[in-house]
Here is the input.
Amino acid sequence: MPDRAYVIDRMISAKEIAARVEALAREITATFAGTDRLIVVGLLRGSFIFIADLVREIDLPVEVDFLEASSYGSGTVSSREVRILKDLRGEIAGRDVLVVEDIVDTGFTLSHVLRLLKSREPRRLMTCALLDKPSRREVEIKADWTGFVIPDEFVVGYGIDFAQRNRNLPYIGKVRFTEG
Ligand code: IMP
Ligand code: MG
Here is the structure.
């Protein structure tokens, strides 16, 4: 539980998110057109709502799998160490893989996960991130698709948490501390 009082200022509305998700899915569908080998890999836990909305707009046969990597502890500061807490259930060799991430921040998580998945020799390996904070980047990496580029703010909602809270907000908002 967060130990400082804060409020959440609205940043991206549910309606804006839905429109952007639809557009991303249309591009993803076009890029992977004709495949029957697509597997969408959600990075837990932050991507769970995004991936649920995204796959429902992808007009292709699709499988879904999940992978959990640790980056943040319970605070708002990123750690460089990335550990795999839960691996995929299925094989991805020879498959078309789309990795879905909530936020690319320093880039450590996504680059680590991509290196791991690449070693398993998928046919194609592409990435879709809902949010991108390019000003925070420490590892050179860019998702193939990005929903929204945002400034260096700590955000919550639409699956994204602050110390495990606020994932259930239907919109994306920024955390503003009100004391301390
Ligand atoms: P990176 O390894 O620094 O790129 O961190 C990526 C992960 O940090 C994301 O998948 C999020 O889980 C978490 N993260 C980064 N920025 C935020 C934020 O503003 N709010 C909540 N989680 C964040
Ligand atoms: Mg994450």
